[in-house]
Design brief:
Distance between the termini: 42 Å
Number of helices: 4
Structural class: mainly alpha
Order of helices and strands: HHHH
Strand content: under 5%
Number of strands: 0
Length: 93
């Protein structure tokens, strides 16, 4: 990915509108998809300042994004969010 691309790799026709606000579009993808064991602190700091953060996180959860930082959360944090207490309660209903 070039430094002007975002983590979203879909066709331009399918491009979510929140990408117009995304700070990741102005940052290198290495921040958001670091090597295993590398820090995601810088990516999370960028996400905290991003207006599209909530929509990005919703997109990642809805599309089961398994890799990288999306909406300010790492893979493990998104997994915990998916499996959280509210989700378990809803699954029992």
């Amino acid at each position: 990915m070039s430094t002007t691309q975002t983590p979203y790799a879909g066709a331009s026709d399918d491009r979510p509108s929140w990408l117009d606000l995304a700070l990741c579009a102005q940052t290198g993808s290495a921040f958001f998809f670091p090597e295993p064991g590398s820090s995601v602190r810088e990516a999370k700091q960028i996400c905290l300042a991003c207006e599209g953060r909530a929509a990005c996180l919703e997109y990642a959860l809805a599309n089961d994004e398994r890799f990288g930082v999306w909406g300010g959360l790492s893979e493990k944090e998104r997994e915990r969010l998916r499996k959280g207490p509210a989700r378990k309660s809803a699954d029992r209903a």
